[in-house]
Amino acid sequence: MRYLLVLFILIVPSLAMTGEPAVDAPRCHAEIPCPLGDRSYHVKEPDDWDGISPLPVLLHFHGWMRQGTLIVKHGRISGATRRRGVLLLAPNGAGKTWNFWTSDTDDVAFAAAVIEDAAKRYPIDRSRIYVSGYSYGAAMAWRYVCENGGGVAALLAISGTLRQTETCPAAPEEIRHVHGTSDTVMDFPFGPGGDTTYPVKLWRERLECNGPPRDLGAWDITRHNSFRRTQWRDCTGGRVTLDVHERGHFIPRGWIARQLDELLDLPPSYP
User: Fold this and answer.
1) For site-directed labelling of 190, which of 15, 21, 131, 244 has its Cα 20 to 30 A away?
2) Whose CA is closest to 99, among 162, 7, 169?
3) pLDDT in tens, 105-130
């Protein structure tokens, strides 16, 4: 027994010194964050992915005092991406918020690094990178594409903007923005004389949309989610779409899903 005890004492430390973990560390996915420097992000794979095919990406910025753990469980966000073959990336804001107020922010570089880190883990379709956000996250999404939108196929912004007087050195190929006229959290930015097309003035100018807008009329997803769509197609640099509803500050049910259906040329579906 004494001999076995001595042998045990000698062997166990030697096993510990090999550096081999006793069990495999859990893979970062869903609520388990992926570390990135001193920060992190969350990722959610789409349903029925074959593990090989390149994936479109939705980089979504959470709202104020939230984190990516909410985004990867959110039915109106993750529910949309996982049913449409889209990889969802949800960065975690420092202090649960974003610094989008000026171009002097580290959050743009961090979010770009999130995409590059995810590209080491998944085959990403670089031609279909979409950037989204809600509330403060929408303003951060605007800031991201304003500073680094050259490789972004579309901005999908919900209830949050930058000042329309900003100067953006970059822009995505397509802008899609939704906002409620009764929003009192990130107030609807009415233009002169109550102009309801003003929320995308910055992008109309940046993409050189010189032709008149097209009023595409009312459309709806559910009985409580109706929108008035205005679109600018005669643009030098892309296309701008604005959906306006009469309600307040929230993520409209099915809105992200419908934008992805249109961008990916899928038949419209709900949810």
Assistant:
1) 131
2) 162
3) 999 999 999 999 999 999 999 999 99
